[in-house]
Amino acid sequence: MTMLYTLMGVNVGVFAYAVYVKAMASQGQQLPLIKFLQNMTLNADEFRSGRYWILLTSCFTHLDFGHVFSNMFTVYFLGRFLAQAPIVTPGRFLNIALGSGVAGSLGFLVNRWQKTQGSGQRDPVRGVGFSGAVMGISTVAACLAPTAKVHLYGIVPLPLWALVAGYAVYDGYYLNSNDTRIGHAGHLGGLVFGGVYYLLRLRGLRF
Fold first, then answer.
1. In this structure, are residues 197 and 88 in contact, taking their beta carbons and an 8 Å threshold?
2. Structure pTM?
3. How many structural domains comprise the chain?
4. What is the 3-state secondary structure (H, E, C) of the chain?
5. What CATH number corresponds to the domain at position 77?
6. Furthest-apart CA pair in the chain: how many Å?
7. In this structure, how many other beta carbons lie within 10 angstroms of the beta carbon of residue 200?
8. How far apart are the first and last CA of the chain?
9. Among residues 122, 103, 102, which one has the least CA distance to residue 112?
10. Closest CA to 77 of 12, 141, 146, 143
11. Which of 36, 82, 165, 185 has its CA 20 to 30 A from that of 21?
């Protein structure tokens, strides 16, 4: 749980700084916001130019309150299932979160490359958010405790496996849609990493 709270704290801290630099930009000081976007958000062209660290830093970045709230709300409740599993040490929890986040970033970049290849233009789209990590954490939790009950939107009771499967179907359906602002490829990248980590790292430890 300490690791979970630490990751949540980093997300909230980065969001607070984003609010600060956006306020500075509104007062005419644009440079801090420009540097923040270059180093803390995921853009395909900037990644190709050598800013490889944005694979990780973008995972902790949120630019509006609704986004950071929804991710922190979800990771708190679903992350507790994972944190309470005896087999999951703090180090493994961190590996799952960061690995899923980076895998989500890679999924986002691959999807953007597929959509923009041959256009000859710069890609203006930026990816941000902890959603890839949340999906990876949720996937491992569902593998360890598939029948654990959760409440969708705090109302509809579901087994954990059904919730994760539902998100996977939803993200897969809208993967290549041009009418969504959600990084569905990033979600699926985190989900795949979580599943692979469970099969290759945790499942073997249970026997």
1. no
2. 0.89
3. 1
4. CHHHHHHHHHHHHHHHHHHHHHHHHHCCCCHHHHHHHHHHCECHHHHHCCCCCHHHHHHHCCCCHHHHHHHHHHHHHHHHHHHCCCCCCHHHHHHHHHHHHHHHHHHHHHHHHHHHCCCCCCCCCCECCCHHHHHHHHHHHHHHCCCCEEEECCCEEEEHHHHHHHHHHHHHHCCCCCCCCCCHHHHHHHHHHHHHHHHHHHHHHHC
5. 1.20.1540.10
6. 60
7. 9
8. 25
9. 122
10. 141
11. 185
Print the domain residue range for 60. 2-206
> How confident is the model over 19-77, as pLDDT tens digits?
999 999 999 999 999 999 999 999 999 999 999 999 999 999 999 999 999 999 989 98
How long a stretch of residues is the chain?
Answer: 207
> What pLDDT, on the 0 to 100 scale, is given for residue 207?
39
